[in-house]
Amino acid sequence: MVWTGTWVAERLGVELIGDEALPALLGLALRRNPKRAHLLVSRVLGKHVPQRPSVVYGSGLDLGRRVRALLGDEEAARSVVLGYAETATALGHAVADGLGLAPYLHSTRRPVAGVARAGGFEESHSHATSHLLLPADPKLLAGDGPLVLVDDEFSTGNTVLNTVRALHERYPRDRYVVVALVDMRSAADLGRLDAFAAEIGARVDLISGAAGTVRLPEGVLEKGQALVAEHERAYEPGTEPAPGSAAAPRRPAPVRVALDWPEGLPDGGRHGFTPDQRDRLEAALPAMAGRITEALRAVPAAEALRVPATEPLRIPAGEAPQVQAAEALRVPAAEAPQVPAAQAQLAATSEERPGSSVEDRSGRTAGEALAATADGRPAAPTPPPAEPRVLVLGFEELMYAPLRLGTALEDAGHDVRYSTTTRSPVLAVDDPGYAIRTRLVFPAHDNPADGPGERYAYNVAGAGFDAVVLVVDSTADTPALHAPDGLLAQLAAHIPRVVLAVVPSYTPTASPYVPYDATPEVTEATEAPERSSMLPEPLRGPAFSSYAPEEVGWLLQDLSDVELEAPTEEREEAIQSGGAHYAESLPVEYQPSDRYQELFHAALETSAARIARAVGTVTETVLAERERPGHRPVLVSLARAGTPVGVLMRRWAQARHGLELPHYAVSIVRGRGIDANALRWLAAHHDPADVVFVDGWTGKGAITRELADAIKDFEAAEGVTGFDPEIAVLADPGSCVRTYGTREDFLIPSACLNSTVSGLISRTVLRADLVGPNDFHGGKFYRELAGADVSNTFLDAVAARFDEVGAAVDADVKELLAADRTPTWEGWAAVERISEEYGIHDVNLVKPGVGETTRVLLRRVPWKILAKRGAEADLAHVRLLAEQRGVPVEEVDELPYSCVGLIHPQYTRGATGADGKAVVSQ
């Protein structure tokens, strides 16, 4: 028989070198891909070439048993198996089944709303490069046991290296095992894995079914692309009329079968699959196979058995070509891996016709059938057997469920083959020496996140199937699947009987969070409330805010089109009279004068290094005290003053340590608490113990107390524990927190402005008619102020000073970590004293510190400003604002802050003068 790589080898000079089993395991085809010309087509993977399910599944089981023998039962029980999408999802599952003791997860290219990304990596040569890791249980990848990575082929090692590098950074461990059907690394690549293992200080083992390499001549990519272009023009998918046309034979509608899929059982491994779930599936398979058998017998056949899509597929007589071996690259016999039994059986009984068995349906071998005719065609068709010849066709990443249904049908006595549809664009050539003989093309039918596109099913048309069982998940059971040009119609045009089996798509509704280093006595998981899965994903720039999308995700709802602004005097009267809460409306955005903007830029120039030092100090303190094995802090800034600080902390961690810390902004409202739905979202996507709340500065500590009370109430109501109410701030002049960059009260230029230094986002809004019980708090994006926006100017100016303050930060952090940082609440005591001394009798109207005083002047009706004598350097902008609003500035001694802003007590609009400015106190 002809090797199915002959066509490519002859035209491009590509050579397959290595183990004797390789020609039976692999064929060659040409990719329609600008990055790599050739495609190694596995005949035991069940992707491009239909194969017996038992052979496909057995190959993975054998590899998994070898991994278990390598690790031993104790280490195997601590391991996790990770497969690669889309080709190796079922293979990885089968390896996990062979290992027997380990949970399984496969990467995915399908993001799922409400499921947090636990990692990702790139596959450089693939047609779709980005892989996501979306485990339902966040601790799945965080253990320290071996990680077993499974792919169909190990070609250059780049994908594995990218994976290990990405995961080791986040979830370091001591051992990795790489598993592949074939190890096809070149001589230049053979040492890279060992060198990488030494670099990260971990052991990396490799297990494969067979080994060899592909020798590629110079210019193969350009030659391959030219060959693809030539044959794509000549390729005609078939002579049969288009499905649904008047000339096409009548095809009965597909029969839908309702599978008794176990409730709550994942449809695959993209969110994780445990040994217990494996046992549940195993027990349910016979019943599901029985339902499919009933459907196969019930579905009517088409009027015409088949109109071939191409010329009948031939099995020409002749010997398979000898595979040239290169001694320098051959794996020594003593080191060569054993070929799994299922693959050895395949090698001994290699079948060249896609989807056909070595024996034809009359029981003759392929050689006997060929001998019966002079030209290699069967002399006469043989009657079909009582049971039809069935293809179980999976759907892209959904490979394991259809594979196991195929093995169950095979166990029940059916003549079954198995393959799946794919995203991978490959040239089809109807030649026995080419691995991809026919191609069905149809539109994507699962509303993919990366947009519409073509999908493919290879070696299905013209392969002699009497029936096809298409297995999809419910996400993919869309009108596009049933459309006239959809996959079902394409299958019906070539196969007489079509059965559609739909598996319910599995989406985790909650994520259990357990400390990864917890003892068994405290590892009972608590599920986040189910409603958290209904919350939307964070808003990001540029659609919401002028920050880059990776800088911050806003856990807010967009109220940009709602009129929320009210004149300052009206708001103040309503707030103080009890008629409204300050969070129910927004002040009119203050637009600074030219003089004030000059002050902002001058202040930024003089204070950028000071701010950078405080940013570095608070970030390094957080990393020193909150980072733990397998975990990184999750920054959650209190919108909006905390958000620029959160962005800067994220930039510091990235610049100094190469860490990509998640960063979100949430709403907290005095008297109303933190947004509980934002906490629910965070608990559903991250370990609450990783969350670090971030704010710009402390005044008297009201928000610190508000957050602590809100977290306590949330945990009591929801049963979700782990959030730490401690706030990390840039400046803590009130001595209210333990984690800070400085306790000096100095000018932070982000306090000088409103939205134009905060990503063009308003203060947050909480109003019953706009924010429902299951909504995030609201916020506005002032797109119209883009011309005045200095948000990124502020961030860039501070970040540019990171390098120069590095040594000072290291010294500060060393001193802080050794110091007693217990809050003294000095600021709160001062505020209470001022409130009584000035006859205000309401601490909420006393706003201490440069930042809070600035807010009073920009948003409220100020009564007077108390300025610490001698604190001129940080108060130029305060004095200017006070002058513009007619507010007196009083010099005082013994003030723990640089300044304090007093809101007009018992305010009514009659308390202002005729010019609308605040009156002088009596």
TrEMBL record:
Which parts of the sequence belong to the TRSP domain?
Answer: 386-490
The record's CDD domains line, in alphabetical order, gives:
PRTases_typeI
Record carries keyword Transferase? yes
Domain Orotate phosphoribosyltransferase-like as annotated: residue spans: 25-212
Q: Which domain of life is it from?
A: Bacteria
UniProt feature, compositional bias: Low complexity: 336-348
Q: What is this protein called?
A: Phosphoribosyltransferase domain-containing protein
Which source organism does the UniProt entry give? Streptomyces flavochromogenes
Q: What is the lineage of its organism?
A: Bacteria, Bacillati, Actinomycetota, Actinomycetes, Kitasatosporales
